[in-house]
Each structure stands twice: as structure tokens, then as C-alpha cells.
Q: What sequence folds into this?
């Protein structure tokens, strides 16, 4: 359990309770849910952006935007219009905190966050690309494949890459492989889906898994190899402390 409080935690602490000291906490930051006082979603998102490493913070802010703005892949334009003012509110809350630690990092995370990221693994994959300077990808871009609409997790289109070959990247969690059904069939379906996307877009296709999250340098190098000659934009505020930029 995690608790946010205005007073400093005492010396006596419970092992199963994490206490966060927030002297600037106000009544406005608290709402009741099922009769329990909880921190408002926007304040929680900003606190996590300030206090968490960028890949974790990005996933949290992505999720907050998705929930608060009702973001859905089936209404891209409306979703983006609804989430933009919420993003601005997050940035205002960072500014209201004044000169606090990691404010620059939090602003970068919030600016790059998107509710179109549907799972934490997708957020991590996007963070990996952004932290290593790649162009900003499209999320859940609808692709018509023989009358069926498919939505790749991330796609760098030819215009984004200055007319180079598109790149598609997807994150495979264990839920995609049918743990409740037939995992073999799920693998075949994913492979067929990938081939259909490649046939239509001629894109380079990359897959990432939880293994890559434990091997960041290897994952980053594999990702960067798919972008030969593409200019990279340094975003040092999105790098985690132990992560170094591959050469």
C-alpha cells in the first residue's frame, strides 16, 4: 500500500506501507472513491512523472491520458483533441510545483505521452525509441489490409523517415499468445498478421518482448539498425541513469 501525506513519516513504519511526504498536498488534490480518500488522477500522474524513471513514468502518464480522455484507436482525431487539454493541465501542475527535482524530465515525459498507447509494453517500446533519438512514431495507425483494419503498435511512415522504408514495431506480451486458449494458433495468427502488414506497407517489422526490457543495450541496437541514415534527435532527459546511448 502507498500513502501520500502532508506530515513527515515517523520513525516507526510498517513494512507493507510506503509513505510519500508531500507538504504541498491540498484538499483539492483529494477525491472520494467508494468512500475512501484518494489522490486525484492528474496529481497522481504528475507525481509519478516527477518521481519515476522515464520508461515507467511514460507508461503511467500514457495510462492517465487514456483513461481521463477516453482515448480509443477507433476515434483518433477525437481522442487527440480530448487528451491535449489534459496534457496541458499536467504541465501546469508541474509548473505550479515550482523548482522541484526532475521537473525537466517530467515535462519531457508528459509532452511525449499518448493515451493511444494501450499497454505498458507499448509505452516502454516507444520510450526506447524516443530516448535514443528516433523520430516520433505514429501509434495505432489504421492500416487497411484487404478490407480489414489492422493497428500496429508503432509505425514510422515513409514521410516521417524522409521517404525511407517504413518501420513497424510491436510489443508481444504473453497475453497475445493465448494462455487461456491455443498458444500455437495465436502464434500462427500473429505471424500471418505481420506478413499481411508487411505485404501492404513494405515495412521493416520489429518485435520486442519482456526479454528486451531486461537487455536494453541489445534492444536499442537492434532497433537502431532498422533506421540507417535517419537523423536522431538527442533527448537526454528521457534517458534512465544506467542507460547509455549506443554508438
A:
Amino acid at each position: 500500500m502507498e500513502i501520500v501525506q502532508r506530515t513527515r513519516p515517523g520513525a516507526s513504519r510498517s513494512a507493507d506501507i510506503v509513505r510519500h511526504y508531500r507538504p504541498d498536498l491540498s484538499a483539492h488534490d483529494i477525491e472520494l472513491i467508494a468512500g475512501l480518500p484518494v489522490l486525484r488522477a492528474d496529481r497522481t500522474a504528475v507525481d509519478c512523472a516527477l518521481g519515476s524513471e522515464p520508461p515507467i513514468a511514460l507508461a503511467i502518464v500514457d495510462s492517465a491520458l487514456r483513461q481521463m480522455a477516453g482515448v480509443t484507436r477507433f476515434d483518433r482525431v477525437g481522442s487527440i483533441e480530448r487528451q491535449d487539454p489534459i496534457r496541458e493541465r499536467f504541465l501546469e501542475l508541474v509548473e505550479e510545483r515550482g523548482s522541484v527535482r526532475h521537473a525537466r524530465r517530467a515535462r519531457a515525459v508528459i509532452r511525449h505521452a499518448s493515451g493511444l498507447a494501450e499497454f505498458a509494453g507499448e509505452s516502454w517500446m516507444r520510450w526506447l525509441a524516443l530516448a535514443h533519438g528516433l523520430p516520433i512514431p505514429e501509434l495505432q495507425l489504421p492500416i487497411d489490409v484487404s478490407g480489414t483494419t489492422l493497428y500496429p503498435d508503432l509505425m514510422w511512415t515513409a514521410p516521417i523517415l524522409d521517404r525511407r522504408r517504413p518501420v513497424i514495431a510491436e510489443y508481444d506480451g504473453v497475453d497475445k499468445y493465448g494462455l487461456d486458449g491455443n498458444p500455437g494458433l495465436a502464434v500462427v495468427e500473429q505471424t500471418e498478421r505481420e506478413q499481411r502488414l508487411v505485404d501492404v506497407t513494405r515495412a521493416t517489422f520489429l518485435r520486442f518482448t519482456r526479454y528486451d526490457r531486461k537487455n536494453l543495450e541489445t534492444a536499442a541496437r537492434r532497433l537502431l539498425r532498422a533506421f540507417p541514415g535517419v537523423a536522431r534527435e538527442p533527448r537526454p532527459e528521457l534517458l534512465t541513469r544506467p542507460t547509455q546511448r549506443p554508438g
